[in-house]
Known about the structure:
Layout lengths: L1 E2 L6 E2 L6 E5 L2 E5 L2 H9 L1 H4 L2
Antiparallel strand pairs: 1-2, 3-4
Amino acid sequence: MAKDPVCGMNVDEKKAAATSEYNGKIYYFCSKHCKMEFDSDPKKYVK
């Protein structure tokens, strides 16, 4: 399981609603909304 960096929800990588790549790492999202939030400002969500 991966953690959605926007909302913190656990996401099954095989069933993720969306993914994004940032700095060579793939992030998994529970919804398209969380992906859009992440894509607008990835630095805000990546520690």
